[in-house]
Design brief:
With about 350 residues, the chain is an alpha/beta fold. It has helices at about 45-50, 100-105, 155-160, 165-175, 190-200, 215-220, 255-260, 285-290, 300-315, 330-335; strands spanning about 5-10, 20-25, 35-45, 70-75, 90, 95, 115-120, 140, 145-150, 180-185, 205-210, 225-230, 245-250, 265-270, 295, 320-325, 345-350. Helix 4 crosses helix 5. The protein is globular, with a radius of gyration of 20 Å. The structure holds zinc ion (2 copies). One zinc ion binds near residues 98, 101 and 114.
Length: about 350
Amino acid sequence: MPPDAIPARGLAAFSPTAPLGRWDFARRPVGPRDVRVAIDYCGICHSDVHTVRGEWGPISYPLVPGHEIVGRVAEVGSAVSRWQVGDRVGVGCMVASCRQCGPCAQGLEQYCDAGFTDTYNGKDLVSGGVTQGGYSDTIVVDDHFVLRVPEGLDAAAAAPLLCAGITTWSPLTHWGTGPGKRVGVVGIGGLGHMAVKLASALGAEVVAITRSAAKAAEARRLGAHDAVVATETGALKPHRSSLDLIIDTVGTGHDLEPLVGLLRMHGTLCLVGGAPEPHSAVRAFSVIGKRRSIAGSLIGGIAETQAMLDFCGARGITSDVELIGVDGVNAAYERVVHADVRYRFVIDLATLDGGR
Ligand SMILES: [Zn+2]
Ligand SMILES: [Zn+2]
């Protein structure tokens, strides 16, 4: 590490099975185009759990996860002019991309032809080391990947907007969600509860599709106009061929056929959940008859993430969160695995100061 590297403290995974523990490490020095963010809050995404447990492939340890980061600007590089120390900012799932390819030129860095750099477990293009995420007191990020978080929003509750929010906002807006459109949301968890809030705020009529009666009631509270328990016989029937778009947030393999049947002509079923196993096959006639599409969508670009944050700032939209200290993270992971969270854990990084 260079002598001007920045000391950082965090919570790291040391193996696929051991609990996360405290770790002192170093951030790269603040370069001319960099911003250093003092982190206040970081959300716990199910991706964090999959990654540190090696469920999406082998990784190098120690690894600090976390890509739903909210903090304040603590330091700016000499070539950075748009931030001031103290600005309320966020960092999401990406910290770098090639910035030159077609997708990058369109502001869709998540589809960078060279592959974007993950906020954690990525290859740091500047230092050559492994990127470390937001369960930490500070992070150094290229200015382009820093987002303005509206001051009016609760900072802890805004953190999940950086992943769960944009992951649902991007397909909702790409497929023209607005007044007169009917949108289905499958799975009412971290992603799904944001999809319900955002789709209804965009003016669409929202139908939540869940497997639990309790979640159906919750979905109505979150803004869904209707909520169906998919496992109840005949529950989906009234909605056949009626939806313009379905955002499917379920993170495990499941049967898509009943969902495709809910789409009206030209409707799209969009997958956003990172299921490691395949979904069941769909019969050709299920999509042919009404020229239906099955699609997927990955997080969102920097420009659209900023648009989403500004929209949420204007409407007062945040995630429903459960705030925890760093000592609660391992227990929270178990509850994430069992979908026992309403709807996102957020870590208060001020608690890193205690209990060393
Ligand atoms: Zn995430
Ligand atoms: Zn690119």
